[in-house]
Design a protein that fits this description.
By secondary structure, the chain is mainly α. It is built from four helices and no strands.
Length: 118
């Protein structure tokens, strides 16, 4: 059994799209209602976790073997996209507790997605 990179890429794109959709809804809710920034910040973390979870579940169901490896590759690709976007918009990468929290959440939800997917 080899790594199915096509499924990993599809799972990663699916994860990013789910996250973007949830963040768009959060932005609209924040604009039209009086949701505080603290609530929005927590919901952004949750959107990342939900996006990666859904992508890991999708790739786990699409492949026949090495489910955990495929799900972790989705996590790595998602994290690479997230760090790349952050580097572009923030003119660099800030290593702080938020980065570690996001990284831990990404890999924990990827692991959970691999378990749920199979």
């Amino acid at each position: 059994m080899s790594i199915n990179f096509k499924s990993v890429i599809k799972g990663s794109v699916f994860s990013v799209l789910i996250t973007m959709f949830i963040i768009l809804i959060l932005a609209l809710l924040s604009y039209f209602t009086g949701i505080s920034e603290n609530v929005v910040s927590i919901c952004v973390y949750a959107s990342v976790i939900i996006g990666v979870l859904m992508g890991a579940i999708a790739v786990s169901r699409a492949v026949s073997g090495k489910v955990f490896i495929h799900a972790m590759l989705v996590c790595v690709m998602y994290l690479a996209v997230l760090v790349g976007i952050s580097a572009i918009f923030n003119k660099g990468i800030t290593v702080n507790s938020h980065l570690f929290a996001i990284t831990g959440g990404i890999f924990a939800s990827g692991f959970l997605g691999s378990v749920i997917g199979k």
